[in-house]
Design goal:
The chain has 2 domains: 5-143, Jelly Rolls (Sandwich); 153-268, Jelly Rolls. It contains 3 helices and 17 strands. It has helices at residues 66-75, 100-105, 205-214; strands at 5-8, 20-24, 30-38, 45-54, 59-64, 86-91, 108-109, 114-122, 133-140, 148-157, 163-167, 176-184, 188-195, 198-204, 223-227, 247-253, 259-268. The strands form 4 sheets. Strands 1, 3, 6, 7 and 9 form a 5-stranded antiparallel beta sheet that branches. The chain has a 4-stranded antiparallel beta sheet with strand order 2-8-4-5. Strands 10-17-12-15 form a 4-stranded antiparallel beta sheet, with no helix packed on it. It is globular, with a radius of gyration of 19 Å.
């Protein structure tokens, strides 16, 4: 595995109430993790996103609420301060993977023609009188081309009643492969994933959370985490959603409320379509 080292990004522009702050990622490094320090609490960091522009315009590749970034940290047992300074971690590579390939291949390779910005949507009213945002990154050496693009994108699943539900609109295009599905709301008791009629995942909340604890993970209240890579093989265990006839997310809802779904994974451009 190539050496991964921390470095500081440029100053964040536009920090303030109701503003969208931003900082451009320096081209060249392969970004594994982005560490954000701020005195803005999670509930007031309304959205954190990464927009990939330039010659290879992929649009938004990462989008999450500040509270969701904290939830992801807690799930892995990471330290999450309850008072300022607050920290938010964006995982692009998976440095806790059990293989060098899994650790490195899912990082964000940056190319000379890229224009990649890290964006922060701040609440209209902020608790700190002098808010700040600082950003550092853990990155490895540059690479000549990009085949994999990390992805974290939200969806809303409409749930109008309790009981068994079926959702048929999970994303499947562009070579996307799933690492985790983060499901919040609906009081989910049982979750199943079927591809072309074959069951690919089945979990009851009680047994899923038991096994997460066995593996050193920390279940989160109100969340059901479908973790295809929970045993650490973060590349070989990716779930490929490509299908011929159907892809189903089936679940048993305990309450009639919409479900927030964060789809975490990596986009595989294919060996013949890499970007350079």
């Amino acid at each position: 595995m190539s050496r991964t080292l921390p470095f500081k990004l440029n100053a964040v522009e536009g920090v303030g109430e109701g503003q969208e702050a931003w900082v451009k990622l320096t081209n060249g490094p392969t970004y594994q993790q982005i560490v954000i320090e701020s005195n803005i609490p999670p509930a007031e960091m309304e959205k954190v996103s990464i927009d990939m522009g330039g010659v290879h315009n992929e649009g938004v590749i990462v989008e999450a609420l500040g509270t969701e970034l904290v939830t992801k940290d807690k799930y892995k047992g990471n330290y999450t301060p309850s008072s300022a300074p607050f920290f938010y971690l964006i995982e692009l590579g998976q440095l806790d993977g059990k293989t060098d390939a899994g650790q490195m291949f899912s990082g964000l390779v940056t190319l000379p023609s890229d224009n990649i910005r890290l964006l922060f949507d701040q609440a209209d009213t902020l608790t700190p009188t002098t808010p700040y945002i600082k950003v550092e990154a853990w990155a490895s050496e540059s690479q000549p081309y990009r085949r994999y693009i990390p992805s974290l994108r939200p969806q809303t699943i409409i749930v109008n009643s309790t009981g068994e539900q079926s959702y048929l609109n999970l994303p499947t295009k562009g070579g996307l492969k799933y690492r985790r599905l983060w499901l919040k709301g609906g009081g989910l008791k049982v979750v199943e994933v079927k591809k072309d009629g074959a069951r690919k995942y089945y979990g009851r909340k009680e047994s899923v959370e038991y096994m997460q604890r066995v593996l050193g993970l920390v279940p989160q209240d109100t969340w059901f985490v479908v973790d295809f890579c929970e045993r650490g093989f973060v590349f070989s265990d990716l779930f490929d959603p490509r299908h011929i006839n159907s892809l189903e997310l089936n679940f048993d809802a305990g309450t009639a409320e919409n479900v927030r779904c964060l789809v975490e994974g990596v986009k595989d451009l294919g060996k013949d379509n890499y970007q350079s």
